[in-house]
Specification:
The complex is a heterodimer of chains A (230) and B (84). Chain A has helices spanning 15-18, 42-52, 56-78, 81-98, 108-126, 134-137, 163-171, 175-186, 191-198, 202-222, 224-229. With 230 residues, chain A is mostly helical. Classes of the chains: A mainly alpha (230), B mainly alpha (84).
């Protein structure tokens, strides 16, 4: 496989690299869609079995395979690196405690993400944000829902979107919308995988993603420069 | 088409949009978009936001030291468990 490791990379390649694929990005256009295999690579499957018997080295290997996606999920959900590191640590500690209960009913990555998502939501609840459960986070209060787009001549977004403005707008999304947006548009998971992680329907994830993008559009159109300065 | 009818048409189209975006259909060829600038702009904005998210937020690498902290915490838990 034509894969060169940079000095900063961990000893183990990511699942995408093992599968010979670039890091996955979620498509909005069907023309660019492709499906990532949810089957564990031989490396992961072997490490998983050994980690379930208490093999420390195998657990480190699982960490190495999944750390980027779990850390990125935490980082995008809480918006700062210190909290993201704490949450990543807590997610992998819980993984270590519970790995013996994994029975392969879903892909390991899906199972691990579900665990990490619960860690993040619990953290947000402790911070006093309006997240009680995943179900509630998926159904924000009426004033948090996006405005309707028909009936008025809306100004379109101008070409390039500023990173800071988008970051701020994502931070201000209700947690449920933010979660779906991060999983799909940033982490690159497909709707069926997200539905499995969140134990909801594919139609629900599509609807929530659309509402998240509408909310972001509202925020970015309002005053992108002011958003970026805040 | 009256303004009301046009609004209704947009409402119906936008209600279908989450499913259309997530399907393999060619949305750009949808009949409603051929005559509705408002919904064309909306779809373009949705694509711009999704593209910006992919481009501006790469998957991040946690610091190298994080594993050391996790490993230490695991060993501490195991040590407490062994003593118990």
């Amino acid at each position: 496989m034509p894969y060169k490791r940079s000095p900063m990379e961990s000893p183990e390649p990511s699942p995408e690299q093992l599968a010979g694929q670039p890091p996955v990005r979620a498509p909005i256009s069907p023309a660019t869609a492709f499906t990532r295999s949810t089957l564990p690579s031989p490396t992961e499957a072997d490490a998983l079995i050994r980690a379930q018997t208490g093999d420390h080295q195998a657990f480190a290997q699982l960490y190495s395979l999944h750390k980027r996606r779990i850390y990125s999920l935490c980082l995008r959900m809480v918006g700062n690196t210190a909290e993201a590191e704490d949450l990543t640590q807590e997610a992998f500690l819980q993984l270590h405690r519970k790995i013996g209960t994994f029975r392969g009913d879903s892909a390991f990555s899906t199972w691990l993400h579900r665990l990490a998502i619960n860690v993040v939501l619990m953290h947000l609840r402790k911070k006093g944000l309006s997240v009680i459960s995943l179900d509630e986070s998926m159904d924000p209060a009426p004033d948090e829902r996006p405005s309707r787009s028909f009936g008025s001549p809306d100004p379109a977004l101008s070409g390039a979107i500023d990173r800071l403005a988008l970051e701020r707008a994502i931070d201000n999304l209700p947690a449920g919308y933010r979660l779906i947006f991060v999983l799909h548009d940033i982490e690159g998971y497909e709707h069926n995988e997200i539905a499995s992680m969140l134990d909801c329907s594919i139609g629900n994830t599509k609807s929530q993603l659309h509402k998240a993008r509408l909310k972001l559009r509202d925020a970015l159109r309002t005053n992108p420069r002011q958003e970026a300065r805040r | 088409m009256t303004e009301d009818a046009n609004n209704m048409s947009c409402a119906m189209f936008q209600a279908q949009l989450p499913e259309l975006i997530g399907s393999s259909e060619d949305i750009a060829a949808h009949p409603h978009l051929q005559s509705c600038e408002l919904c064309r702009a909306l779809l373009a904005d949705m694509e711009t936001i999704a593209e910006a998210a992919r481009r501006l937020f790469p998957i991040e690498e946690p610091p190298e030291t994080l594993w050391d902290q996790i490993d230490l915490a695991i060993r501490n838990e195991e040590s407490v468990s062994d003593q118990g």
